[in-house]
């Protein structure tokens, strides 16, 4: 197995699924659907986890059953004294190995709120950060039907709320990039990807030490979307203009988004009508969203650390 995973980062509805599908068609790299379990396992176990307790928690994760990964096979890979990052990586290694691949990756937008954790667990990881015009991402996210989006107190319910999430998460990923340096962080604009899919994919592959393979772009019609009505764009090749905030977002919502995140939009090369210091109301909204998200994550940590987690996660048949 390669010594480093490839982690795809991006705010929700920023094109990370498109990149995942393309990379997963590599003959060397396996990138599954969203994992979600990394923070749970990290919050429940110390740096050198007890193997029995760790594997018992794996038996309670529906994701592993969905992936067809046996906790017993993961257990066989856990060497004595393995770090927590190595133990979690073993889950992905089994997934990749079962598909005849030697490397693994992950794409879970939720982890944009846990970048420091990823950095600590996987000190050799490389990060591909997808950036999309936040207004287009907001249009896409806010049009998603109930039942697809997991609602929480920090889930954006308006364009201004989504601007808060977009701004904070994009800036957190860019800060990560400054810490780890260009050898481990690559920023890719979604708009460039759909305009020149082969060129941008070659760039990603070079960064990830992967050979470019034409099959990576031949995903259209070859992705199971039976349970993913919100990802129907994968039935076609990379296509510009699937969302256009200029025609699909109300002017007031566009102005509210720019009031919060106009400066970051302009810094990334997106046109804005104004990009000065956010007004007081926008700064207060941003601070409220940041506090709400931090409180929600702290509550999740406390729950995951407590005995209540196992009660709510019975053994998966």
Q: How would you characterize this protein structure?
A:
It contains 15 helices and 5 strands. With 317 residues, it is of the alpha/beta class. A 5-stranded parallel β-sheet has the order 2-3-1-4-5, sandwiched between helices. The radius of gyration is 20 Å and the shape is globular.
CATH class: Alpha Beta
Please provide the count of β strands: 5
State the assembly state of the protein chains: single chain
* Helix share bin: 40-55%
What is the CATH architecture term? 3-Layer(aba) Sandwich
Biggest sheet, in brief?
5 strands, parallel
Strand content: 5-15%
- What's the shape? globular
* pLDDT averaged over residues: 92
Question: Which SSEs are present, and which pair or pack?
Answer:
Blueprint: E1 6-9, H1 16-24, E2 29-30, H2 37-44, H3 51-58, H4 62-67, H5 71-77, H6 84-98, E3 103-107, H7 115-121, E4 126-131, H8 134-142, H9 159-180, E5 185-189, H10 190-195, H11 197-207, H12 245-248, H13 251-267, H14 280-305, H15 308-312
Parallel strand pairs: 1-3, 1-4, 2-3, 4-5
What key attributes describe this structure?
317 residues; five-stranded parallel sheet; single chain; 50% helix; Rossmann fold
State the gist of this model.
The chain is of the alpha/beta class. Helix content is 50%, strand content 7%.
């Amino acid at each position: 197995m390669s010594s480093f995973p490839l982690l795809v980062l991006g705010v929700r509805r920023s094109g990370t699924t498109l990149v995942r599908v393309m990379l997963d068609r590599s003959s060397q790299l396996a990138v599954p659907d969203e994992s979600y379990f990394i923070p749970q396992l990290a919050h429940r176990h110390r740096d050198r986890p007890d193997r029995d307790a760790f594997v018992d928690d794996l038996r309670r994760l529906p994701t592993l059953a969905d992936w067809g990964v046996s906790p017993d096979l993961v257990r066989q890979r856990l060497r004595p004294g393995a770090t927590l990052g190595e133990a979690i990586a073993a889950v992905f290694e089994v997934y990749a190995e079962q598909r005849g691949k030697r490397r693994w990756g992950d794409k879970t937008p939720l982890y944009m709120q846990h970048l420091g954790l990823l950095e600590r667990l996987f000190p050799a990881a490389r990060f591909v950060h997808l950036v999309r015009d936040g207004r287009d991402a907001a249009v896409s996210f806010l049009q998603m039907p109930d039942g697809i989006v997991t609602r929480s107190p920090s889930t954006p319910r308006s364009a201004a709320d989504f601007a808060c999430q977009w701004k904070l998460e994009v800036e957190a990923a860019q800060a990560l990039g400054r810490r780890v340096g260009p050898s481990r962080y690559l920023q890719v604009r979604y708009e460039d990807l759909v305009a020149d899919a082969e060129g941008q994919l070659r760039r990603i592959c070079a960064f990830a030490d992967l050979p470019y393979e034409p099959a990576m772009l031949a995903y259209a019609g070859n992705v199971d979307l039976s349970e993913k009505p919100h990802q129907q764009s994968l039935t076609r090749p990379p296509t510009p203009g699937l969302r256009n905030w200029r025609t699909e977002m109300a002017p007031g919502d566009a102005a509210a988004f720019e009031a919060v995140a106009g400066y970051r939009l302009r810094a990334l090369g997106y046109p804005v009508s104004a990009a000065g210091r956010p007004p007081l109301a926008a700064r207060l909204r941003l601070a409220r969203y940041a506090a709400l998200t931090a409180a929600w994550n702290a509550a999740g940590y406390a729950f995951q650390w407590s005995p209540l987690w196992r009660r709510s996660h019975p053994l998966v048949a």
